[in-house]
Specification:
By secondary structure, the chain is an alpha/beta fold. It has ten helices and 13 strands. The protein has two domains: 104 residues, Aspartate Aminotransferase, domain 1 (Alpha-Beta Complex); 218 residues, 3-Layer(aba) Sandwich (Aspartate Aminotransferase, domain 2), CATH 3.40.640. The structure holds pyridoxal-5'-phosphate. The site of pyridoxal-5'-phosphate has 13 residues, from helix 3.
């Protein structure tokens, strides 16, 4: 019998997580290198008995470590179960105007899903022909703005000056900057926090800190924004961060030198890989992330996607997204993995 009250939802479709061994997994922008030795030590030393109790309500030690790393006050930080958790709460907390919120037509696919889920009116603004965010498009009246910087799935970074111009022109609404990929060559908007109360920056441990499976992310903003988003957290899931995650993420922050090195390695491999693809006449968007968006030449995106998969190499293909249906998004793995990818592509080309 048809049930009353059931909702119809078009959910976000996350990248697949194949469980086979011996694959090269380049489809969800995970880190090619493992967590830091300090994280492994913290895991080995974790006291299982403590799991009897609920996790902390405010992640004081992790927030303190982050505050020192980022140069902000600990009470400007909120921690979540991945940055998806933070972003979802931020939509609930900050986007309650009748006017539409604005975000690009090509960006993190979850924004649209949350807007629909929470009945938030939105307007998707097309990126320009070079897949860039145009500052002028964000100067109209709106109910809030969310931008990924560097953007995904394009990889393109927008300068801090231009981000500031958008923030400055929109001081009556909240502007969220999703910095999931910021440590692969971008410049953070954190300095804007000292000047503007309407900026909220989100970060994740899933990419640069190589802890996607741990599920930790955080948001940074003014006291005014913190009060509202904390109220949301306490209305949905007060113990949203588990005890193990808090301890291991803290160890990650305290061993950040290791991650600076791995990010450098990934960036060097990315630039090498981009040059290799361009030598094959592929077009590759400029990337400040740990992935590239590329349009193959001499072969269709679909055929190359299938060929790579036959060779146990998983990348992301978006056949339903009109503007990039001829492109593949390829995460940057280790240098050896990317050499293998280039070899498999070369073998397939006519
Ligand atoms: C732009 C962007 N924001 C947020 C996330 C979510 O990250 P997580 O929930 O793993 O912290 C992702 C994950 O791919 C992303 O690409």
């Amino acid at each position: 019998m048809a049930l009353k009250g059931l909702r119809e939802i078009e959910p976000y479709v996350a990248g697949s997580q194949p469980q086979e061994k011996d694959i090269i997994k380049l489809n969800t922008n995970e880190n090619a290198y493992g967590p830091s030795p300090a994280v492994k030590e913290a895991l080995a030393g974790f006291e299982t008995e403590t799991l009897r109790k609920y996790s902390s309500l405010d992640q004081a030690s992790l927030r303190q470590a982050l505050a020192e790393q980022l140069g902000v006050a600990a009470d400007q930080i909120i921690v979540g179960n991945g940055s998806d958790d933070i972003l979802s709460m931020a939509f609930l907390a900050f986007f309650n105007s009748d006017e539409p919120i604005l975000f690009p037509d090509l960006t993190y696919g979850f924004y649209k899903v949350w807007a629909d889920l929470y009945h938030i009116n939105y307007h998707e603004i097309p990126l320009n022909d070079h897949f860039e965010i145009e500052t002028v498009d964000y100067l109209a009246d709106n109910g809030g703005i969310i931008l990924t910087n560097p953007n995904a799935p394009t990889g393109i970074f927008k300068s801090l000056e231009e981000i500031e111009a958008i923030v400055r022109a929109n001081q009556d609404v909240v502007v969220i900057i999703d910095e999931a990929y910021i440590n692969f060559g971008g410049e953070t908007a954190l300095p804007l926090l000292g000047k503007y109360d309407n900026v909220f920056i989100t970060r994740t441990f899933s990419k640069d800190a190589s802890l996607a499976g741990l599920r930790v992310g955080y948001g940074v903003g003014s006291p005014q924004l913190m009060t509202v988003i904390k109220a949301i957290k306490n209305s949905v899931n007060p113990y949203n961060v588990n005890a193990l995650s808090e301890q291991l993420a803290t160890a990650a922050v305290q061993s950040w030198d290791y991650y600076e090195e791995t990010c450098q390695k990934i960036m060097a491999t990315r630039d090498w890989f981009k040059a290799e693809l361009e030598a094959l006449d592929f077009s590759v968007l400029p990337s400040a992330t740990n992935f590239v968006l590329t349009r193959p030449a001499g072969v269709s995106a679909e055929d190359l996607f299938k060929h790579l998969q036959t060779n146990h190499i998983y990348v992301r293909y978006f056949p339903k997204v009109e503007r990039i249906k001829d492109y593949l998004r390829i995460s940057i793995g280790s240098q050896a993995e990317m050499e293998k990818v280039v070899q498999v592509i070369q073998e397939f080309l006519p």
